[in-house]
Amino acid sequence: MCVGQGKPHFRHCSRNCIFSPMLVYIQIPAYLRQWVLHDFGDDEGVVRFPRGSAENDVLEYTITCQPKDEPPQLRQEGDLAIEVPDFKSKPQPYYCYINKKAKEMLAHIIYVRFRMQLWQDLNSIERLQCPITDMIYEWMDRHGIDDDPKNWETIRQIFFRQRKQYRKKNEEKR
Fold first, then answer.
1. Is 82 exposed, middle or buried (0-12, 13-18, 19+ CB in 10 A)?
2. Angstrom distance (rounded) from CA 63 to CA 58
3. Could you tell me the end-to-end alpha-carbon distance of the chain, in angstroms, rounded to an integer?
4. Stretch 57-75: mean pLDDT
5. Can you tell me the distance from the alpha carbon of 8 to that of 40, in angstroms, rounded to the nearest whole number?
6. Please, which residues have CB within 8 angstroms of residue 119's CB and are 6 or more apart in sequence?
7. Which of 8, 22, 53, 74 could be stapled to 84 by a disulfide with Cβ–Cβ 3.0 to 4.6 Å?
8. What is the pTM of this model?
9. Where are the chain's structural domains?
């Protein structure tokens, strides 16, 4: 059985038990952690993805019982804390563990969502001939990402690679 983490909240169960939310932790780059916390996080730094989201689907598919030979997951510096919803088919507190591959899947889905949001927001503005430097810094500010040259450069490279891929595909169609 898992031990709850975080502040307690009430759940319905046969014995009127009190469970804390179950959390899993993943490592992702700082800019990505800041973005996901801004868009899906709370004041305590815990991310709660919406019901029906791809992230919750991955959690439901991959969550298992804690292996007996595996110590409980503890939060490390730089970890992103993600609340595990109480799935009907996998009730808490018994299902509270995701393995390394599941964490990688979850991190990848977060990255894909980030790229989609970046492209959706910046592609339309770029057509207005705005300076890329200003666009990226403004976008970072709107999404809670620290104004840091490393973050800016990483996001610029992601955006440029996406733009290059789309331009290449458009040229191939001609």
1. buried
2. 8
3. 59
4. 89
5. 20
6. 159, 162
7. 22
8. 0.82
9. 9-173
Number of continuous H segments (helices) and E segments (strands) in the chain? 5, 7
Contact call for residues 95 and 65 (beta carbons, < 8 A): yes
33: left (phi over 0), alpha (psi -120 to 50) or beta: alpha
Residue 94 burial (10 A CB sphere; 0-12, 13-18, 19+): middle
Rounded Cα distance, 94 and 134, in Å: 48
pLDDT higher than 50, residue 14: no
CB-CB contact of 75 with 81 (8 Å): yes
Q: How far apart are CA 161 and CA 132, in angstroms?
A: 14
Per-residue pLDDT tens digits for 18-60: 457 789 999 999 999 999 999 999 988 999 999 999 999 999 9
Task: Give the pLDDT confidence of 93-114 residue by residue, as tens digits.
Answer: 788 889 999 999 999 999 999 9
Residues 6+ positions from 156 with CB-CB distance below 8 Å:
132, 136
Q: How confident is the model at residue 167 (pLDDT cuts 50, 70, 90)?
A: confident
The H or E element containing residue 161 is helix 149-173
